Amino acid sequence: MVKGSPKNNKWMRRYRSFFVIGIVILCSQIYLAMRFFALNKNVETQEVKWEQWSFENDIEQDIESNSAGKIKPESVDEEEAVVSQKNKKAKANQTYSLHYDDLNFTPPCKISTKDAVSAINRAKTQYCKQLISNITCLSSEGKLYPKELKGTCPSKGHITGKELGCFKDEKNFRLLSGYFGINKKSNSPHYCIKLCLQSGFPYAGVEYSNECFCGTEIPPLSSKIPDSSCNSKCPGDPHSTCGGYYAINIFQTGISKFVAQIANTEVNNVTVKPVKIVFLLTLNGRAVRQVRRLLKLLYNKNHYYYIHVDVRQDYLYRELLPLEKSLPNVRLTRKRFATIWGGASLLEMLRSCMWELLNREDWSWDFVLNISESDLPVKKVGQLTEFLALNRDRNFVKSHGREVQRFIQKQGLDKTFVECETRMWRIGDRMLPFGIQVDGGSDWIALSRKFVEYVSNPEPDDLISGLLKIFKHTLLPAESFFHTALRNSMFCDTYIDNNLHVTNWKRKLGCKCQYKHVVDWCGCSPNDFRLEDWPRILNTLTRQLYFARKFEPIINQAIILKLELWLHDLEEPSREVRNMHGYWQSIYHNNDLGVVADDGIFTLSNSIKRHVANSLPNVNSSCDLGLSKLLEVHSYHYNDSYKYTLFKFMDKKKNIIEIAVRPLSKISVNKSSNLVAHIESLTVSSEYDQKEQISRNFLRSLSPYSEPLLVYNFNMQHTTKGYNITSLWISPSGQLYDAVEFFVDETTQIGHARPVLKQPILPGELKNSAPVLRNLKTDIISIFDDIM
To answer: Which residues form the WSC domain (predicted)?
Structure first.
């Protein structure tokens, strides 16, 4: 037996506590080091994630996509932010109650998801409620959409799921740098391949168990390492490996790298056969004078003009129909749709018109180009014809210019929508099918005849048939259907990333959730061009852009006149033009079918009759101004300012009499204040356009079912002070309806304050008061009341 040294034992006893402390410190250091590397890994991947989302320049400035997908994070409207925050707080598995007492049918399945229940409860007709119920059940059972679609774009040897091996990745130099995402529940090679294929990347890679990378470039063989280095288990598939620590398993997604074609612009001394264009005009509203102006700028006897007028716009359709008799290359389709903003019917309308065009044997054309009443050309039609002739059989669409997964979420492509009651109802989430690339952007397109034949065929192939099932229940389908069909079909090498349009985007004004009355989504829309936007039009001179939007003469006609002169190389009109600065737009016509006119218009017309009868004595018995019938009502503007509303009557002897009417402001000041000096205008009206910051109810006529609001304009340029203002809404009986607070400073000079008023509103004089203003009066009139 070996006996220990007493000296050593004594030393150990003396310093035992120091040894214990040292071991604890060493273990702590090892633990902190491990945490540090893990934290460093997470921080680094988060940085990569956001860097990849900004790999494109801000190309979207010239993209027309009327959707929330166009909103940049810093320009999200406060109202939309509130909606978004509420949606985040709502849990997907929460149960909501369906109002079964309001249904005259039994839903085919149990419906408990928030969106579907809300849509059914809010729908007005039993048909719409039942349609939403049926679609919801089909979606929940997985029977609504195809699980997988196969494209026919040549893959150039790429095979879906083919493994390239395990590769060494680096923190500062990622092998796949196109897109990055983390999924701690579902990540696997199959999941990552699907994600990258959907995003348009030829390569997918899984790393560190829950990370998915996408890229366009094949990894170098010099980075390949033994397969044993990729040994992390996949959370979505325990039988597969998902890379390792800075080790990545890379696979082919089955598609080749996509490169959009470059448009030809040079003739190269070769005789080019001219092309014939069909201008497909998709029209809405009542601005018939502007439509005629557009046709005059576009008209050429060698081209064709096919017009679709919204089925609800009887006036516009009736006014344009005589064009068919005088112009053989102008036709109006008889199959009309209600083309609401974001509606699935817009895609159905485009395909229907395209198929009708293909079946017109007397029209031989090469391209279809869609435009609206808000578009105007910025180059001569001859220049457009030459450009398209150089690019025969190619297809012009504009892509979103951002990361695909973000586009899918912002565009609502991962949601199911149902269109009925001229509204798009959101009913729940969905998964897009595996096997295709998703693309989208602008719904203004120029398509070749061959591609039109392919996408509009009533007996489509499997790809188009599957896409139609998806986009039948998609918000803004025309903004993605044609792009996605192009990218995944045999026409993928004809894709040119240009929609030939320049669009006047002003995100802070155009993204105000202004379409909530027709769609369960927050959407964006471009602003109207004004004179101050003229430099944007001048910038199109050296670019392949041939149209601009949007233009509205009721907002700004001066920019339209300037553009017309510019197109004709004139500084001023070559001859005198009567009423060149005047503009008339129809509000009402007695021949309109299916249009319910505002009660306020009829009540005012009756008041006008009585006023004329009382103020104009019959000095001559043969001159009887008894107004018997209201024929038309127009809004008249001059030099971009509202002047009058014109009521056209027929008297008892069938003479036509027109009377000009305009509203009078009734504002009185209670006491002097610094705020009064900053007031430019205060009006009570309705139909406020947040995008253009103007009320479109120029006459300011209000009926019991109107939604009145206060429109304010303050001049705060010479002060840095802000004001908190309370607007009081007082009923004709003296009851306080509502109190609305708003804030005004140098950044919020123009806006509106909307009260919450229960309809029908009591007819009479409604007062709007503030501490400084005693009252701002307006009349709520009913068709049964005698108020003037």
So the answer is: 160-254
The two tokens of residue 561 are: 């006149």
Residues 644 and 509 in one domain: no
Residues 383, 244 share a domain? no
Please, are residues 408 and 432 in contact by the beta-carbon 8 Å criterion? yes
In a domain, 125, yes or no: no
Q: Grade residue 47 by pLDDT with cuts at 50, 70 and 90.
A: very low
**Residue 582 in 3-state DSSP?**
strand
* Structure confidence by residue, pLDDT tens digits, 498-524: 999 999 998 888 787 878 888 999 888
Assess if residue 266 is contained within a domain. no
Distance CA 217, CA 647 (A): 67
Tallying the residues shown for the chain, one arrives at 788
Q: What are phi and psi of 35, to 5 degrees?
A: -65, -35
- Residues 734, 773 within the same domain: yes
Mean predicted confidence (pLDDT) in 130-150? 96
Percent of the chain at pLDDT exceeding 70 = 86
What range defines the domain where residue 376 resides? 277-566
| 758 and 690 together in one domain | yes
Which of 252, 285, 303 lies at the terminal end of a domain, its last residue? 252
Number of domains in the chain: 4
Q: Position of tokens 């912002």?
A: 410
Cβ atoms within 10 Å, residue 29: 10
Tokens 């002047």, residue?
643
Q: If you average pLDDT over residues 305-324, what whole number do you get? A: 97
- Token output for 259: 């490169």
Residues 609 and 695 in one domain: no
Cα distance between residue 609 and residue 589, in whole Å: 17
The model's pTM is 0.85
Please, what is the angle between helix 462-471 and helix 481-488, to 10°? 160
Element holding 307 (H helix, E strand): strand 304-309
d(CA 491, CA 266): 23
684 with 737, same domain? yes
Measured distance CA(328)–CA(730) in Å, rounded: 59
Identity of the amino acid at 431: M
In a domain, 46, yes or no: no
What is the C-alpha separation between 301 and 276, in angstroms, rounded? 10
Phi-psi region of 500 (alpha: psi -120 to 50; beta: other; left: phi over 0): left
Distance (Å, whole) CA 359 – CA 348 = 17
Nearest to 453 by CA among 574, 572, 546, 367: 367
Which of residues 395 and 171 earns the better pLDDT score? 395
CATH number at residue 731: 2.60.40
Query: Cα–Cα distance between 354 and 456 in angstroms, integer?
Result: 6
Whether residues 691 and 590 fall in one domain: no
pLDDT for the residue numbered 735: 87
* 61-98 residue pLDDT tens: 443 443 433 333 334 444 344 334 444 444 444 557 89
Of 346, 290, 308, 768, the C-alpha closest to 563 is 290
Confidence of residue 437 (pLDDT cuts 50, 70, 90): very high
Q: What is the amino acid identity at position 139?
A: S
pLDDT tens-digit series, residues 250-296: 999 999 999 999 999 887 767 789 999 999 999 999 999 999 999 99
Cα–Cα dist 487/492, whole Å: 5
In a domain, 119, yes or no: no
Question: Is 505 found in the same domain as 466?
Answer: yes
- Give the domain-ending residue among 217, 252, 287: 252
